[in-house]
Amino acid sequence: MPASPADSSTSEQPVLEVRNLVTTFDTDAGRLTAVDGVSFQVRRGRTLGIVGESGCGKSVTAFSIMRLLPQPMGKIAGGQVLFDGIDLVTAPPEEMLKIRGGRIGMIFQEPMTALNPVHTIGRQLSEVFLLHRTQDKREALALSIEILGKVGIPSPEVRVGEYPHQLSGGMRQRVVIAMALACKPSVVIADEPTTALDVTIQAQILELMQELQHEMGMAIVLITHDLGVIAEMCDDVVVMYAGQVAEAGPVERIFAAPSHPYTRGLLESIPRLATPRKTRLKTIEGMVPSLADMPVGCRYQNRCPYRAEICAQPPPQEWVDDNHRVACHRWRELPSFQA
Amino acid sequence: MSAATSPLLTVKDLHMHFPVREGILLRASKSCRAVDGVNLTIAPGETVGLVGESGCGKSTLGKCIVRLHQPTSGSIIFQGNDLAHEKGAALKAHRRELQMIFQDPVESLNSRHTVGDIIAEPFVIHKIGDDAWRRQRVRELLAKVGLPANAAERFPFEFSGGQRQRIGIARAIALEPKLIVCDEPVSALDVSIQSQVLNLLLDLQREMKLSYLFIAHNLAVVKHVSDRIAIMYLGRIVEMADADTIYRAPRHPYTRALISAIPEPDPTRNKQRIVLQGDVPSPINPPSGCPFHPRCPHATDRCKVEVPALRTTGEPGQQVSCHYDL
Predict the structure, then answer these.
(1) Helix (H, G, I), strand (E, B), or coil: what is residue A113?
(2) Do A231 and B192 count as a contact with CB atoms less than 8 A apart?
(3) Which pTM value belongs to this model?
(4) Residue A1, pLDDT above cutoff 60
(5) Is residue B272 part of a domain?
(6) What is the per-residue pLDDT across B211-220, written as a single tens digit (0 to 9) for each?
(7) What pLDDT digit, counting tens, does each position of B248-283 carry?
(8) Which of B172, B189, B204 is the endpoint of a domain?
(9) Who is most buried in A48, A269, B24, B170, counting CB within 10 A?
(10) Does residue B280 lie in a domain region?
(11) Which residues of chain A are within 8 Å of residue B220 when distances are taken between CB atoms?
(12) Are B119 and B86 part of one and the same domain?
């Protein structure tokens, strides 16, 4: 990817930077490339959204950053993940143990599977503190109670003694957030943190994340398929399609003037409150090609209304402006966008 | 809905209580009031959206209407007959006109049957047509839902989520029903596929004059497909109105919170989110008085003791169950 025109100027150092990440999986169908040359920067204290449909590689990107790919099938085949001056791709396992749950926290989609059903909340939270902050079990428990209170769990001194099944879905996700934030990380990676929750509970969790970010100043990498959540939560957004970055930039720019036909298709196909009722929605025809059967050149070409001959060549990554980049041959020729 | 058309479906004071078995003897000591006195009508060709959070009883209500559950009490009047306690041949005959589409197209399709067999199954059950006629119908139905004719010989696992939902839709329309209960039909689908399936449902409705009960938690989706919307909370309908009215002038504090909680894909909109405190209470131990009072920002002492009745408001067709005009 060419350097951003903004790179040379005064822009601050990113807290996390992914450069040309390539992740492969060995399957019965051969080696598949799930993430193919993904690059982005996470700004300190800001929220970066990664949006895309199932199978686009957004979760694999997160698991690659944390080096939590399923073994032995998953492998980082190239690229760098720069965090605090070290490359997480080549960092030794002991180093990763310290970083995971320490300086980088994680929140997963399904809080029930992220928590161990046979251990109490207190024991699981204490584990994080014992691993990263203290040797004293009693102190670890006190810290656990403190952080549970902070994520809005009522009577935390009672809740530490309870098991995950005794909590509601929203409360469980608060516990997972407490675990992720236990060691005051500088980055939190949240993979679909509210997808399994109801709308009113989602609103609680999103608000909690915003409050805690304001207070603790961590950067958030928010992975979701929900463009509404992206719009409400993020400063920057990376739109992924079939393992590659289709478009990336500040969230207002991407929603107001999307330059990639896929981003446009996504934004046009969601029903909004203002859309006239019972009218046909715009659609993206067809479906995502399988990883084993990717078209040569632009991966979106078989669904793209603007497809031309040149799309059989791999699209260049071009800068629309200082912070906004797009991978499309024809982005300059697209008609102006109306949501 | 105009007063001239008589409703296709009228649900009156419907209750569905499940026994909760506890203790060593598994005595049914309590009951879970999943549906707790629901009244609802659906006109021919109309879509009624049913919105609520998990556990509010929306799916149970849908299953009662197609009689996958036998309701505890109340009536389900469909084309002049009360289905609520019907059995045997009479129920089977009415079921032809009432179909259901499920959220998870994978689990709702038998993985050992070909797609052709799955779609033809309603004909087999109702002894309609011979083999040749059924094969022909299956081809027509596949074309109608936008699947290739050779899909009939293939198995469900060979299809993507959106295509599987099309198979479920083909089966649901096979007997040319009057009403289809759609239970979260697009919730499991990706955005780009979701709009394809919604368009298909809208096209089929126009073509076949179908009525839908559209159950979902995504309000933007529900608003797009519905003529009227019912908001359900803890087994009861707390507000009902035209789809546009409910967004323009929601009256129930729960409806307002729900609408404000939808994340809208517009980063420039500076929206005031109403964040409700707490979780949805359990329908096994519902709160006294208004079921919403423990989470309601406007609750008073009256709300703790007195159950509000569903009453009309100034807006046409709007009903709300709240003591106050907020």
Answers:
(1) helix
(2) no
(3) 0.89
(4) no
(5) yes
(6) 999 999 888 8
(7) 899 999 999 998 888 888 888 776 788 888 888 888
(8) B172
(9) A48
(10) yes
(11) 228, 270-273
(12) no
End-to-end CA distance of chain B: 26
Q: How confident is the model at residue B1 (pLDDT cuts 50, 70, 90)?
A: very low
Cβ within 8 Å of residue A319, ≥6 positions away: A2, A4, A5, A325
Same domain, B232 and B281: yes
pLDDT tens-digit series, residues A13-37: 899 999 999 999 999 889 999 999 9
Q: Are residues B231 and B302 in the same domain?
A: yes
Q: At B87, which CATH number? A: 3.40.50.300
Pairing verdict, β B228-233 and A16-27: unpaired
Is residue B325 in a domain? no
Question: For A159-189, how does the pLDDT look when each residue is reduced to its tens digit (9 = 90+)?
Answer: 999 999 998 888 899 999 999 999 899 999 9
Bridge-based pairing state of the strands B47-51 and B228-233:
parallel
Last residue of a domain, one of B172, B190, B214: B172
- ipTM of the complex, rounded to two decimals: 0.85
Q: B7-11, B50-54, B273-277 — which one is most confidently predicted on average?
A: B7-11
Q: Is A305 on the interface with B (CB under 8 A)?
A: no
Query: A36 vs A12, A44, A239, A242, B228, CA distance in Å?
Result: 27, 25, 14, 9, 46
* Domain assignment present for B136: yes
CA A161, A165, A171, A172 torsion: positive or negative?
Answer: positive
Size of interface A-B (CB pairs under 8 A): 134
Distance (Å, rounded) from C-alpha B181 to C-alpha B318?
A: 22
Chain Cα centroid distance, residue A50: 5
Q: What's the confidence (pLDDT) of residue A339?
A: 67
A199 near B CB under 8 A: yes
In this structure, which amino acid lies at residue A323?
A: N
**What pLDDT is recorded for position B195?**
93
B263 and B302: one domain?
yes
Which residues have a Cβ under 8 Å from the Cβ of B170 and sit 6 or more positions away? Answer: B119, B138, B141, B142, B144, B145, B147
Q: Are residues B196 and B234 in the same domain?
A: yes
Domain encompassing residue B71: 9-97+177-320
User: Are B212 and B304 found together in one domain?
Assistant: yes
Amino acid (1-letter code) at residue B93: A
Same-domain pairing of B202 and B87:
yes
Provide the number of structural domains found in chain B. Answer: 2
pLDDT tens digit string along A189-198? 999 999 888 8
Nearest to A200 among B191, B202, B261 (CB): B261
Query: Are residues B81 and B205 both part of a single domain?
Result: yes
